[in-house]
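Comment thread on ticket #2218

A.B. wrote:
> Attaching the input chain for the structure job we discussed in standup.
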Amino acid sequence: MTNIYEEVRIALQGIWHRRWIALAIAWAVCLLGWLVVAMVPNSYESKARIFVQIDDVLADQIGIGGDRKRDIERVRQTLTSSINLEKVIRATRLGDKVTSDKQMQAAVASLGKNVAVVSQQDNLFEITGTAGSGGYNDAENAKLAQDIVQKMIDIFREENLAGGRGEMTDTLAFMDQQLSERKKALEAAELKRTEFEGRNADMIPGSGSLTTKREAARGEMRDIDSNLLAAQSALASINGQLSGTPQTIALPGVQGGAKGALAQAQADLGAMRARGLTDSHPDVISLRAQIASLQKAAAGEGGGGGAPNPAYTSLISIKADREASLVALQSRKASLQAEIARLSAQQYGEPAIAAEAARISRDYDVLKEQYDKLLRDREALRLRGQVETERDAVKFEVIDPPTMPVSPAAPDRPLLLLLVLIVGIGAGCGGAFALAQLKSAYSTTGQLQRATGLPVLGSISEALSRPARAERARRLKWFAGGVAGLFVVLFVLLGVEMLKRGMVA
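C.D. wrote:
> Ran it. Output below, let me know if you need it in another format.
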């Protein structure tokens, strides 16, 4: 701690011995800094608040209200668009020195940095305009800032509100044109799809196609196979029962057996034909099969007699029915096999046709979706235009008119003047300290001992005569006056700044 204190004391003593150099450096830096600050032009800022109602209760109720964030961004972009900024430049003093397109582009870019539009709430916007041209005095810059903001409000009111209806009409006309073109394309696609389906009705996937027919035939084939198995099993069961059932029952004086059954069957066949049944009738086919079976049984019966067994006769009839059903199922199975083979032979061209049909249908669906969406958008836009026309959905109101600035927004000149003084004093002290480090002089005996490594026996204090002390006191007064002069100049500059602000107000 003692070493630190000693080093600080040595540094302060070195600066004090070169105080005139420090004062000269401080004056030079302060004068130069104050000159630079004085050359920086003041920038004046004007503010205004406007209310833009970008929504409407009726529009929200009927579902045509727009995206609020998008509408807010649209208002901000409209206020600060390049076209509007160019109009602001031409309508204010900013355009007095603009004579070429290049200068206009530079002016628009510069003005774009000096204006800001901030959304304080959903419908409330704050417009800020800044003017700080070095070619105008403070009063002119303050008035220019107010004019910039006022002109931006006027342009927004004129173009955004008055031009809204014309923009809506142009948009509806464009959408009607697009709808007409989409309608023609949709009709052409629908006609193409209808013609293609008419030419390839059997080949297109769906109801009535080859694939559907083939799958239906295969399903029926599976059902017939099941029915065939059931019919064959039932016929085998009947045959087993017939083998264990006697054909006749021995009764004296009664003709029976197969011959009696054959006679009865032939009588029944004659009765059926008498009713007009043809040979293709299922009952006739079944009875004829039964007669053929009975004829074989009667031929092997011989001349024996007896009454026919009713159970045997009933089993014979059931057997004939089962055989007829089996024959019909076998015939239907053969027909289905031929149909499946024919459909499989025709299927080789279906994949390409199916792909073409899918492409045509996909194109039609896309056009139909686009047409429907465009139609819905057109109707919503038309309804929105009617609401805006009848109810004036976009309302504009100036809440706070552009302010007339009475003090510069930038730079903060009093603070800069004070900072220049601090920097000047710091630069003077720093310069004196640097010079003290360059010269090989020692302020204390301890410093001399550390530098030489030799013991210091003692030191001699400075002895001043009375005239020398008077001269030192006089110089000290001059130095104090020089330091005080820096603060006096600072106060004068601050007073001038306040006076200039009062003149602007």
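A.B. wrote:
> Thanks. Noting for the ticket: Strands lie at 44-53, 115-119, 124-131, 248-249, 307-308, 395-400.
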